Amino acid sequence: MLFFRNVLNCRNIFVQMLARISTAHNHCDLVQAFAARQSFSKPDLQAALESVGDFTPTVESFRHLYHIVENQPASGSFWPQFLTVASELNRPLLVRAVSDFVLDSPALHNNATIMQVLRLLISDNRFEDVLSLYQFMFHRLTDAEQKAFVFELIIILGQTPYWENALPMLSLMGSGSHVNALRVLCDGAARFSSPKTVLSMMERLPEHTGVPNDRLFSNLLSRFPSMSDLNDRLDELLTLMHRKHWIVSENTALLLATWFNSQSPQSYRATLNVKILESNAKCPICNLRLPVFQATSERISGLAAEFYQKALKGSGKDSLYLTTTPDELHTMNRFLADQTAPFDCVIDFLNLMHQFGIPFEPQKAGHFICEVSDLLIWFERTSYRYLLICSVTNIVIFIDK
User: Fold this and answer.
1) Which of 107, 127, 319, 348 has the fewest CB atoms within 10 Å, counting from its CB?
2) What residues does each domain of the chain span?
3) CA angle 214, 220, 221 (to 5 degrees)
4) Per mean pLDDT, which of 44-48, 119-123, 312-316 is the most reliable?
């Protein structure tokens, strides 16, 4: 018996030694694979990582690798590319090790690397690590960078139990993105907080245009069965939806009807249907008679023509700048034909102003122009290629970087 125990112990020691030798060998292979290279493009990274297996290098190994690449051209994009290629090659141990390296030494890395690691930490539900890395990054951002990154950071925190930490950042956002950011935080509340907190967050959403997405309703309804004050919360939800005049999607409507019908028959009963107004129907609010829409072919054709005239062609001085002339279209097609690489982002400046309701007057559009400028600065620093389309004295200008 003692003999077999000694044999087993020797075998375990031998396996541990082999594992250490293998790790050391992989470390040497990894360092040598990059030490001999003069460039670190995606194909170069792919070739280097294909030559080593999936393993967990030490932090010191990555520090060695960091010193190899830090003075090379485009070194700022090395770690994001490393993570992308390692993920594509299915190297989860390498990916996690890089994430740990960034967590250990965040000051060595740029914002693009930290943002990518934050997304990876979210996918692994490493929420405490997300919070600490987010706090480090946010405190080192300049005011302009905070405005450029604010929506992405809200999306990050909105997927964690720390979504409330993102509430102060709402003040950094323009009115156009504010509603989308609120929806993200409502999603976080529905996933991690009490239904009472969720309903309080939903109160911040505006009428008509602020309707939450399907995911929020799904998460919220899944919490209802375990509540002691179900009827009160349910009444609060339906009252809120009615007061805000929210028109939910078909998926949400089906979800609500299914949930109601799944409860005990004596409690609720829901019917999903559409009621056609009769000729003598009246508005329940102002009590005036409502006109009945006649869906004739002529009426439909008229709606299509009206939509084209107002939404596409444009009319009047307020919407004239939305019109695209044949010369402008020809200029754009000729410009695109000369391009050899895709753009990461295309910004149609004037239509963007229209979408966010910015008056077409220089003195009123100044703040919006500053926000777009901050965004372009962020594109420059992160090496993204962008195309800005604007117009000066009826000439379309394309700015590509």
Assistant:
1) 107
2) 15-140, 142-225+233-246, 320-400
3) 90
4) 119-123
